[in-house]
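#help-structures
NK: newbie question, is this the right format to request a structure? protein is Protein HflK
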Amino acid sequence: MAWNEPGKGQGDPWNRKRPSNGKPNLDDLLRQLKDRFGKFGNGAGGILTVVVALLVLSLLFSSYTIVGAREAGVVLRFGQYSRTLPPGFHLKLPVPFETITKVEATRIRSVTDKVAMLTRDENIITIDFTVQYQVDDARKYLFSLNDPDGTTGAAAEAAVRSVIGGSDMDQILSAAGASLVAEAQTALQKTLDAYNSGLRVTEVSFQNVAPPNEVKDAFDDVNNAREDKQSIENGALAYASKVVPVARGDAARIAAEAAGYKAERIARAEGDTDRFDLLLKQYQAAPEVTRKRLWLETMEQVMADNPKVIDGSDGRNIINLPAQPGAAANAAGADASTTGVVVPAASHDSADKGGQP
């Protein structure tokens, strides 16, 4: 007879009772499962079959793994490291033969801290620093350190302290502080490599570098004085860059003039020497003639600029007096003494005797 035969009501081939209200009873569910799997065997055999089926399903589901795009999978075989899986779908031995631990390899981790440090010149300075790092080797990250993040924070503080302790306060607060950040990153990476941490430092930064609040006012005064000093030095350098080229140009000009004057004097001296040598030869050949010629040339040079004319011919010669500047305006009222004519005493004597002037 069919289970849904008319007139028999809504039957159930599995003899399942459907409660009208509320949730199904747990005992009923267990009884139903027992009834279903009882077909494969009775008593303990049926239970064994269920256990085996569940075990097979568990082995199948644990025989593969999927590693995310930002992860790395570390496989342990009987608790010993076996291999590292890249992102993707992978087959493996089921649990408990192989287990896998996934590590976020590309995630950027960070450590931030604020510490007060002592500089090389015995000044106290407060620094806020941040260290960013990521996993470079998942195996070392899992098994080399008990607390990788805590170890990284302690190593970062030690690296920053070593760099700050070896530098002066002025160097830390100046533009050279950027090089100290690079030194701190290098020192931290060396420490983490020595620990086989499997971590790679990506960035180290100093957010706030300042003296303690107790000495901040005095420190600001020192900074202002340093800025004033720098401003004065810049002004002096600008003035020097403007004045020094002018002074160098004047020095070069004076040196050139001195060199020209030197060359002129040397040439003139050499010419006078040559002329004297020629004159000496002439004097040795004709002493009287040469002496008289020298006397005449000397007198000619002396009298060349003298406006007076000396007549030694006893007034027998007609002398054309040279024109003087401004003489035309004063010619009408000029006296005989201003004409520039000196008459020897002999000419006056001849005039008194009735001679012609």
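mod (FA): yep, format's fine, and the tokens are attached above. Residues 331-357 have pLDDT under 50 and may be disordered.
NK: thank you!
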